[in-house]
Amino acid sequence: MADHYDVLGVSRDATPEEIKKAYRRLARQLHPDVNPGEEASERFKLVTHAYDVLSDPDQRARYDMGGDSAFGGGGGNFSNFGDIFETFFGAAGGGGPRGGRPRSRRERGQDALVRVTLELGDVVFGVHRDIEVDTAVLCETCDGSCCQPGTQPATCDICHGTGHVQRTVRSLLGNVVTSQPCNVCQGYGTTIPFPCTTCQGQGRVRARRTVSLDIPAGVETGLRLQLPGSGEVGPAGGPNGDLYIEVTVSAHEVFSRDGDDLLATLEVSMPDAILGTSTTIESLDGPVDLEVRPGVQSGDVLTIKGRGITPLRGSQRGDLRVGVHVVTPTRLDAKERALIEDFAKKTKAPGPRLAEFHQGLFSKLRDRFRG
Q: What total of structural domains would you count in the chain?
């Protein structure tokens, strides 16, 4: 008989964890489902027996004192094979481990996704919304038990509540015991003799419910907000999944967004651009006074501090930046034309000329809101 420590490739003072690790490694290499050769089969039997002895403190102590737990011949009964299948090959043959627990009918519900469209004004300070969600909710008739009121699940007669059945198969390794989910109860260990007629034994029903949501300031298109536990209730009254709110911010006809700043364009007449003026504009949160200095140019930006968007994580609002567009009149009567001509003669303004590109009109238009 080969030495058990040599078979597993460990020292005699190996810890239980080292022995288990060595066994797992060898079992993966030599298991008949992976390595069907006769030599591998014999080695697998030796490895399994060595592990059975050395993993049990009493058997290992007797073995270390010179005794041995006999292998029992080539046709031994591997009653722990279901455990081996489960541990190393994920319930081979479709079964759970021998003596394992039945499945639970209660499972976590699925996550839900709802899309919400906001106005740009909603983003400045945040907004409260009541959202209608079509989802799975707890069945009020059976309260998630899946049974008609006054009844309860019955222990499965086939698996006797274990959720699985064992089968013994003769093979080259002897009698191999495998474990499979019970076909009658589907692995739950119980059956529902009288399913709830409201939910058809699911413990949940489809319904429309209202979810109150405070959407914070600073959100933007594509952002998803998570509401833990507000998604679908699980089968048999299992815990709820999560609800995700995907935000879309609709375009505004006057204002646009640049980070936490708001952008707008102010049309100024030529006389007002020359002489300067004051005006009141309507921002997203009320009227704002604005001073236009004399000699303002198209492309200049007037900044109003603190009238932008409150950031998603912070309290300091961005700015409202107003780009100036000087409107040149296209239709003049004779008197107006004469006045402009007289003004041009008196100011002796230079004629049209090319300017340096970075100071030119195209540069200003390009950088209007980026200064």
A: 3
